[in-house]
Automatic annotation (TrEMBL):
It comes from the Eukaryota. Keywords: Signal. The lineage of its organism: Eukaryota, Fungi, Dikarya, Ascomycota, Pezizomycotina. This is Extracellular serine-rich protein. Residues 149-176 are annotated as: Disordered. It comes from Rhypophila decipiens.
Length: 205
C-alpha cells in the first residue's frame, strides 16, 4: 500500500521530467520541417519553432496528405493555424506551437499554406514500423498529386506560444526547455528520477 503510494509519487515525478523535441519550421526560408522524421515517446512534447514565412503544422492521414485528418477519419487531430514568423521576430521572439504525444500512433504532418505540401513540406512523427510501405518519401510522393485543404475549425489540438529567439526561454505549451538548437532537450533524466524515488522508497520501507 505504502509502496504503491510511493510508486505513484515516482510516476508523478516522471511526468514532470519532460522531453521536448524541437522541430524547426522554414529554417533559412526553406519549405521544410527539420527534422522531418522524428521518434517521440508518450508524454513527450514536440515544439514547432517558426523561423520564416507563414506556415502551419497540420495533421493528416497517410493516405490523404495535404488534407486535415478530421476530413478523412474520426480523429480531430491538430492544426497550428497560420503562423507568420516575422510578427514574432519583430519583437525578438520566435513563434512556437507545441503538441503533446499521447500515443505512438504515426502522426503525418503537412503545411497547409499555398502549395507547400505538394512541394514536400511534410513530416512524420513515429513512422509505422508495421508497414514499411508507409514512409515519409511515400507520403511526400502522394502529396505531389494532392490538393491542399484547410481544417474548417481553425487552430486546434496544440498550444501556441513564443520562445526567445536567442536564449530559448519561452511561454506557452511546455516550451520552457532551453532546447533551442538541440534536437531534443531533456530537463531531467527519467532514470535519475526513478533512482531517486527508489532510494526514497528504500528509506521508508
Ligand atoms: C542558414 O544557411 C546558412 C548558409 O548556408 C548557414 O550558415 C546557417 O547555419 C543556416 N541557418 C540555420 C538555422 O540552419
Ligand atoms: C498567412 O497565410 C494565410 C493563408 O494564406 C493568410 O490568411 C494570412 O493573412 C497570412 N498571414 C500573413 C501575416 O501573411
Ligand atoms: C474511429 O475509426 C476507427 C477506424 O476506422 C474505428 O476503429 C473506431 O471505432 C472509430 N471510433 C469511433 C469513436 O467512431
Ligand atoms: C507494400 O507494397 C508492396 C508492393 O506494392 C506490397 O506487395 C505489399 O503487400 C505492401 N506491404 C504492406 C504491409 O502493405
Ligand atoms: C493529446 O491529447 C490532448 C488532450 O486531449 C490533445 O489536446 C492533443 O491534441 C493530443 N495530441 C495529439 C498529437 O493529438
Ligand atoms: C532570456 O531572454 C529573456 C527575455 O529577453 C530574459 O528575460 C531572460 O533573462 C533570458 N534568459 C537567459 C538565461 O539569458
Ligand atoms: Cu509552409
Amino acid at each position: 500500500m505504502q509502496f504503491s503510494t510511493l510508486a505513484l509519487a515516482a510516476l508523478a515525478s516522471l511526468a514532470s521530467a519532460q522531453t521536448v523535441h524541437v522541430v524547426k519550421v522554414g529554417v533559412n526560408n526553406s519549405l521544410t520541417y527539420e527534422p522531418s522524421d522524428l521518434t517521440a515517446a508518450v508524454g513527450d512534447m514536440v515544439q514547432f519553432q517558426f523561423f520564416s514565412g507563414n506556415h502551419t503544422a497540420t495533421q493528416s492521414t497517410f493516405d490523404k496528405p495535404c488534407s486535415p485528418i478530421s476530413q478523412n477519419s474520426n480523429i480531430t487531430g491538430f492544426h497550428s493555424g497560420f503562423i507568420p514568423a516575422a510578427a514574432s521576430e519583430a519583437m525578438g521572439m520566435r513563434a512556437v506551437y507545441s503538441i503533446m504525444i499521447n500515443n505512438t500512433q504515426p502522426l503525418w504532418i503537412y503545411c497547409a499554406k499555398g502549395n507547400h505540401c505538394e512541394s514536400g513540406m511534410a513530416m512524420v512523427i513515429n513512422k509505422p514500423a508495421a508497414n514499411p510501405n508507409r514512409t515519409l518519401a511515400a507520403y511526400k510522393e502522394l502529396a505531389k498529386g494532392a490538393t491542399t485543404e484547410l481544417p474548417t475549425g481553425g487552430a486546434t489540438g496544440g498550444t501556441p506560444g513564443q520562445t526567445d529567439a536567442t536564449n530559448g526561454t519561452s511561454d506557452g505549451g511546455a516550451a520552457d526547455t532551453g532546447a533551442q538548437g538541440a534536437g531534443a532537450g531533456m530537463l531531467v533524466a527519467p532514470s535519475t528520477v526513478l533512482l531517486a524515488a527508489a532510494g526514497f522508497a528504500a528509506l521508508l520501507l
